[in-house]
Design brief:
50% strand; elongated; mainly beta
Length: 520
């Protein structure tokens, strides 16, 4: 135990005199090193988690600490007081001695440097090569220095948080240009179909004194315009002459024959390309919009037609992300749609259907690799057979009272995606151009108006104005960059319907139909 002599001023109640006494203080630690007493004799220092012994030459009657949360004082003997440091800060220590003397000390509790050193060591391990300093003042921990990324700043804050409330004063180096990913998508679609139609409709305008006809109902048969009567000519209406039309006036007998073979082939090759920064979503659409009427009830009784525009064409939505492994993770949703030949008809206006091939998935692959996202092979056979019961079962002759429609179709679909990490085209290098089959107007400008280049305006600053920025400023900039462009809203057009004598049916449309819009 090491003793430190202190001078204490004693105030007498009867006369003013000075009494001298020795107070010895020693810090009880594992190493036995003293914490110390100031030369003024009124300051005591103790470390959090350690103890200090204050000795008095006379008996001690009472002892008190101003803030019990920061330190505690325990009288271990009539002339010794044990002071324990509990929390970093400052407080006062009061000692009342026998004879009426009172001693006052400024007790300063210093934070333990052991935990601070441990945190500094962990900081050096987790953030090698980055200058980060950690200082502690009471319950507050201050972080200063420069780190490489926001992730490193978050990690430093988490490590320093073990000491207390962290004040983040770190700066982050200006990040480099982020990687940009080009996604190449190929839609390969082949549709084949072959159909065969065979059928006969017979009709008589007076053969064997009989007027009439036979049909299987598969194809349109001739109809009599008027009710036949003796002595009047018979009039027929042909809505469809089919492929062959035969009529014998001398026999008053005729036939319409459907005998047709049809083959169709449709192939599609679409290759949309789209560029995006890693972690940012991108979308692409090359097609158009068609109006779709929707009947809405109104208070006046007459329905109101709401027009909604539906998009079609080649669409591509994807979100690329470069993983720590160096691969590219893709959330991709390609789509190909076109206008079909069937649909609905409203008040004489035809609304076509939309044929759509759509997929959505998430894959991971390396730079330049290709994935077949989706493949489809669809073979169909449809056959419709109609006949007149009885007579249609007679061999050979029954073929005239039968009709048949056969359709065979084949569909093949393949979707390929290839991501590539790309860089901008250097200045002065040729850029991709289209090959135009016909020249443009002679004498017209070949270069669009633009802002003058650097050679005219002067060079730009090649490096940032400062090498680092505060963490909160960089976070704010990144949050602004993450705001997505709002999706275009569906265009609505209200078309009032004029009152009619008969109640209007839901979905009935009167008035001109908006023409499809092109969107490329």
């Amino acid at each position: 135990m090491i003793r430190v002599r202190l001078l204490g001023a004693v105030l007498g109640a009867v006369a003013a005199c000075m009494l001298s006494g020795d107070i010895r203080a020693a810090e009880m630690t594992q190493s036995g090193s003293p914490t110390g007493v100031s030369s003024a004799g009124r300051d005591l220092f103790v470390t959090v988690g350690k103890s200090l012994v204050v000795e008095s030459p006379v008996n001690i009657q009472r002892v008190s600490v101003g803030d019990a949360a920061k330190a505690e004082a325990i009288a271990v003997t009539p002339r010794e007081v044990l002071v324990n440091g509990k929390q970093a800060g400052e407080t006062s220590l009061f000692i009342w001695q026998a004879g009426g003397n009172r001693l006052v000390f400024d007790l300063r509790i210093q934070p333990s440097t052991l935990r601070l050193e441990v945190v500094r060591e962990e900081m050096a391990k987790e953030l090698p090569g980055q200058t980060v300093t950690v200082t502690q003042d009471g319950e507050n921990v201050f972080l200063r220095g420069t780190v490489d990324t926001l992730g490193a700043a978050d990690r430093a804050v988490a490590i320093a948080g073990t000491l207390g409330k962290t004040v983040n004063l770190l700066r982050v180096k200006v990040p480099p240009i982020e990687d940009q990913i080009l996604l190449r998508v190929r839609f390969l679609d082949v549709d084949r179909s072959a159909s065969q139609d065979l059928g006969v409709n017979l009709f008589s305008t007076g053969a064997t004194n009989t007027i009439g006809g036979t049909t299987t109902g598969a194809y349109s048969a001739p109809t009599f315009a008027t009710v036949p009567t003796p002595g009047t000519p018979t009039t027929l209406t042909l809505s469809n002459a089919l492929n062959l039309f035969l009529f014998r006036p001398d026999l008053n007998l005729g036939a319409t024959i459907e005998a047709l073979e049809n083959k169709q082939l449709a192939q599609t090759l679409a290759e949309p390309n789209l560029l995006a920064i890693t972690g940012k979503a991108a979308s692409f659409l090359a097609g158009g919009e068609i109006p779709v009427p929707i009947a809405q009830p109104s208070g006046g009784g007459a329905p109101v037609i709401t027009i909604q525009w539906r998009e079609y064409g080649i669409r591509l939505n994807f979100l690329p992300t470069i993983t720590p492994r160096g691969t590219i993770r893709l959330k991709v949703a390609p789509e190909v749609s076109s206008l079909g030949t069937t649909g609905v008809t409203i008040s004489g206006f035809s609304i076509p259907n939309i044929l759509t091939k759509r997929m959505q998935t998430e894959v991971e692959l390396q730079n330049g690799q290709t994935f077949g996202l989706a493949g489809l092979l669809d073979n169909e056979v449809q056959e419709n057979w109609n006949k007149i019961p009885g007579i249609g079962d007679i061999p050979v002759l029954g073929k005239l009272f039968q009709s048949r429609h056969r359709l065979k179709s084949n569909t093949e679909l393949l979707v390929l995606v290839t991501p590539e990490v790309v860089r901008p085209i250097p200045v002065g290098q040729p850029v991709p151009e289209l090959k135009y089959p016909e020249p443009f107007l002679e004498g017209a400008p070949t270069v669009a108006p633009r802002t003058p280049p650097i050679s005219v305006t002067g060079p730009v600053v090649p490096t940032p104005a400062q090498g680092s920025v505060p963490v909160e400023q960089l976070q704010e900039l990144e949050q602004q960059g993450q705001s997505q462009t709002p999706a275009p809203q569906t265009q609505m057009l209200l078309v009032p319907v004029q009152p009619q004598a008969a109640p209007a049916q839901p979905g009935q449309m009167t008035g001109p139909m908006p023409s499809p819009q092109s969107n490329k």
